[in-house]
Specification:
0% strand; 2 domains; extended; Phage_A500_Gp15; mainly alpha; Bacteriophage Gp15 protein
Length: 125
């Protein structure tokens, strides 16, 4: 499961959103730890982050993250229609967010350009 504090995997991809996935986060904490988040309004942020970052794959959020993060085409092909919809919607949302940030898009394009120059033996200038 991705690190909660940054919500970003080592590949730089995000697999859940604090706001959009809040119901899944609440349900997952309740399932795994027996803690009702709404009843603990005084819970320190660091403690909350620790609980979320420790969520297992058998929780509601863990199951969704596993679907969203899947990259194996054979596994994706074996998904149920609902799993494919979840996977596709998340990928579409991530692509739209990348396209809506021109600065990030420029940075990604420069990184891709550098990679191609290295692949084909051309040094960056």
């Amino acid at each position: 499961m991705p690190d909660f504090n940054g919500q970003v995997s080592s590949s730089g991809e995000r697999w859940y959103d604090l706001h959009d996935d809040w119901p899944l986060i609440e349900a997952s904490i309740a399932k795994q730890y027996g803690i009702r988040v709404r009843q603990h309004k005084d819970m320190p942020w660091d403690e909350f982050c620790t609980l979320v970052s420790g969520l297992m794959s058998d929780t509601p959020l863990g199951g969704i993250v596993a679907i969203r993060a899947e990259k194996d085409p054979k596994a994706i092909k074996a998904f149920s229609p609902d799993q494919r919809r979840i996977h596709r919607e998340w990928r579409t949302k991530q692509a739209q967010q990348k396209l809506s940030d021109p600065e990030r898009l420029d940075k990604d394009m420069e990184a891709l350009s550098t990679l191609f120059r290295k692949m084909f033996g051309k040094e960056a200038r």
